[in-house]
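Here is an idea for our session: we take a single protein and study its fold together. To get us started, please write out a protein record for me. Once you have written the record down, we can walk along the chain together.
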Amino acid sequence: WQQPVVQADVTIKGVTRRVEVPLDLADAAGTLTARGTFRLRQTEFGMMPFSVAGGAIQVADEIELAFEIVATGR
């Protein structure tokens, strides 16, 4: 797999969206590690980005999620 991509269903607050996530795979000593990052917009899930002071300070709509999954043999 040179450029593996997985499709994942992400559910936040009851709203599900499918995302495509490119993976980095590493296989060493019987352990397979998959790492990836992807971005989501809070508004796509019906959420309002956090703000205070009448909107003077706001959190960006887009958030980045990162993960690492490690699989080992038994």
Observations:
- The mean pLDDT is 87.
- The CA atoms of residues 37 and 66 lie 4 Å apart.
